[in-house]
């Protein structure tokens, strides 16, 4: 019996590239159980921990980040040539059927190496605004997938597939999870939950907003803020809560191991607008106040938020407007008009792409079948 194809995925640097890569790997093995999935990346990013922990083989090469000045920037061309040749050897030794980059600097050598070795390749762009690495990588392949409908690459035809998410989110059922999830957070009937999170590193402005809302809602017993402040900010936020008159309103958590449970328990989210976050919010149907990261060169997170805002399932606030006086009334309006939240949940379904990983997996397997 002939073994299934081997698909090599480049998913490195940050979780925004790695987690959709893992979602793609999961979808490939579901779709074709005899397929083999391997990863490539560098020793510098989170992939060196997350990929092996998920049970996949990780090949390393010597690519370096584009960031930097002077001699650091001067090392990029040499590193790209060296790592692309390393990628070509990996592809040839594993008899790979297709190569997929999930974006980021660590994906470029795989796509160049695939071009050199005659392996079909595919690039996935996670953000609404193409990253510099993918702008380069797409010069070496004609197969480009996007997470957002508005994303464009000059001179390249793209296919809008969505942002790949893992099964715990794509199979999300709020009604089935709701009671268990609210019990896990200790929420009595009649208490609304506001989920506030700035991502893995947290966001100081969102933490300050949560603390301000706690003061504003001091004494209320019908609302609870679940705040994930981020590793860098947790201790300071915990200390600030000690003297906050609304500290009983806030449940401060270090980690959220089950985001599906947090989403099911929550009534409203206040979050940044990273690509993965907005994709999840749409799929789980959680009405949100989106506060994009304010220091992106091209307002990437503002563009990420556009589909949710245009659908009517979320509200956009700029970082400087994420204050108690502005954001407080917005959230309170949601809480006093729960029927509006039902409408927003339904509108989010119109932009959700729960099958993104499956579509991308089918494309990768189709490419492998052409070899």
What do you see in this structure?
- This protein has 2 domains: 6-165 and 354-369, Rossmann fold; 169-349, Glycogen Phosphorylase B (Rossmann fold), CATH 3.40.50.
- Helix content is 45%, strand content 15%.
- The protein has helices at residues 15-31, 47-53, 71-74, 76-93, 108-117, 132-137, 167-170, 174-184, 204-216, 234-242, 259-265, 275-284, 300-311, 324-336, 338-349, 356-369, and strands at 6-10, 36-41, 57-60, 98-101, 121-125, 144-146, 158-160, 192-197, 223-228, 250-253, 268-271, 288-290, 314-316.
- Strand 1, helix 1 (15-31) and strand 2 (36-41) form a beta-alpha-beta unit.
Task: Provide a quick synopsis of the model.
By secondary structure, this protein is an alpha/beta fold. The chain has 2 domains: 6-165 and 354-369, Rossmann fold; 169-349, Glycogen Phosphorylase B (Rossmann fold), CATH 3.40.50.2000. The protein contains 16 helices and 13 strands.
Which CATH top level class of the largest domain fits? Alpha Beta
What fold name goes in the CATH topology slot of the largest domain? Rossmann fold
The N- to C-terminal Cα distance equals 18 Å
Helix content: 40-55%
Q: Profile the largest sheet.
A: 7 strands, parallel
SS element count, helices: 16
**Could you spell the SSE succession in H and E letters?**
EHEHEHHEHEHEEHHEHEHEHEHEHEHHH
Q: Strand content of the residues, in percent?
A: 15-25%
Number of strands: 13
Overall structural class, as computed from helix and strand content, comes to alpha/beta
CATH superfamily grouping of the largest domain: Glycogen Phosphorylase B
State the domain count: 2
- From the alpha carbons, calculate the radius of gyration and give it in angstroms: 22 Å
């Amino acid at each position: 019996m002939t073994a299934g194809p081997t698909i090599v995925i480049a998913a490195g640097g940050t979780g925004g590239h790695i987690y959709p890569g893992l979602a793609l790997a999961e979808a490939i093995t579901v779709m074709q159980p005899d397929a083999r999935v391997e990863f490539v990346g560098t020793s510098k990013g989170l992939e060196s921990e997350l990929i092996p922990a998920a049970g996949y083989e990780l090949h390393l090469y010597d690519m370096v980040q584009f960031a930097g000045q002077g001699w650091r920037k001067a090392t990029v061309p040499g590193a790209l040539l060296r790592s692309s040749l390393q990628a070509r050897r990996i592809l040839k030794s594993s008899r790979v059927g297709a190569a997929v980059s999930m974006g980021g600097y660590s994906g470029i050598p795989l796509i160049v190496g695939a071009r050199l070795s005659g392996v079909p390749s595919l690039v996935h762009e996670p953000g609404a605004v193409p990253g510099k690495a993918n702008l380069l990588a797409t010069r070496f392949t004609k197969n480009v997938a996007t997470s957002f409908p508005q994303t464009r690459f000059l001179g390249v035809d793209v296919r809008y597939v969505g942002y790949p998410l893992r099964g715990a989110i794509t199979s999300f059922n709020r009604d089935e999870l709701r009671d268990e999830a609210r019990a896990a957070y200790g929420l009595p009937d009649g208490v609304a939950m506001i989920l506030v999170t700035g991502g893995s590193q947290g966001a100081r402005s969102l933490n300050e907003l949560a603390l301000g809302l706690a003061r504003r809602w001091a004494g209320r017993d019908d609302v609870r803020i679940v705040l994930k402040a981020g590793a860098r900010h947790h201790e300071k936020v915990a200390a600030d809560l000690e003297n906050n008159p609304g500290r009983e309103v806030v449940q401060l958590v270090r980690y959220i191991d089950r985001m599906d449970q947090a989403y099911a328990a929550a009534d409203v989210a206040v979050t940044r607008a990273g690509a993965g976050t907005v994709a999840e919010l749409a799929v789980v149907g959680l009405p949100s106040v989106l506060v994009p990261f304010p220091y992106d060169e091209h307002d990437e997170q503002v563009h990420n938020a556009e589909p949710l805002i245009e659908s009517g399932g979320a509200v956009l606030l700029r970082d400087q407007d994420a204050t108690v006086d502005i954001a407080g009334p917005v959230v309170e309006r949601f809480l006093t008009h729960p029927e509006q939240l039902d409408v927003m949940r339904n509108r989010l379904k119109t932009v959700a792409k729960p099958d993104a990983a499956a579509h991308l997996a089918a494309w990768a397997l189709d490419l492998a079948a052409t070899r």
